[in-house]
Amino acid sequence: MKRILVPTDFSEHAENALKAAVLIAKKTKCELFILHLLEVPNQINDTITGGSSIPEEMLFIKKANEKLQKITEQPYLAGISVNVSVQYERTFSGILAFNKKNKIDLIVMGSHGTSGIEELLLGSNTEKVVRLSEIPVLVIKKDVRDLKFKNMVFASDFSPETKKPFIKMRDFAAIFDANLFLVFICTPNSFKTTLDAEKIMSKFIKNYEIKNYSLHIFNDTNVENGIVNFSKTIDADLIGLCTHGRTGLAHFFTGSISEDLVNHVTKPIITFKI
């Protein structure tokens, strides 16, 4: 991991994400990229390319750059390589384009928790970034003063296609020397006996070098509740999930589960693309 992106709308939630990114950067010696996106009228292109002046839009750009400069002067960023940028695109598409151009390894986004992501990522932008991003996305829900990455949950069906996401989750846990709890959620609509679930998980994990881990099977009414309730029982600091691109979360992670968890769960969530 070399480069971390933090999109910001200058809100408290975005600052929480930045502080979480700083924790990771200090562990990995990553560069931080702070991005502010301006969804301005198409006429701004005339200004950028030397056309007639548009005072209002230029004022927005100036203010955004001033705020970004103030962010870089915060004491908690001391000793960290920080790059700032203002882009003129829609939020989710701008983030995805910036990732590819700058070879970002991790996105860290701020969220309002149970109310969903506000200001920075309104409505479907949250689900779009999580669902379409080719790189891991970490969503932070609260002030990071009490944030620690000691107990991490990885919820999966442990199918072959989750191997690459699991490796990324394993490596992320290793950065913090965290305890990794691997959990298979059983529901009435996706039932497996304990014996069958144990065989699937044991076969999956034997292919990897990993320490500080444990295997768990958890029964609940549905997958979302299972992930939330299991995470509470072990006092998880972070929940890891696999995403499956345009079709949502793989196998039992279907429908609105990904969006519901990202928008409603108060714990930090990290997602990995299959």
UniProtKB/TrEMBL annotation:
SUPFAM superfamilies named in the record: Adenine nucleotide alpha hydrolases-like
Identification of the protein by name: Universal stress protein UspA
InterPro entries: Rossmann-like_a/b/a_fold (IPR014729), Universal_stress_UspA (IPR006015), UspA (IPR006016)
Family recorded in the similarity comment: Belongs to the universal stress protein A family.
Domain UspA, first and last residues per copy: 1-141, 149-271
Protein source organism: Flavobacterium fryxellicola
Pfam families linked: Usp
Gene3D superfamilies in alphabetical order: HUPs
Database matches in PANTHER family: STRESS RESPONSE PROTEIN NHAX (PTHR46268), UNIVERSAL STRESS PROTEIN UP12 (PTHR46268:SF6)
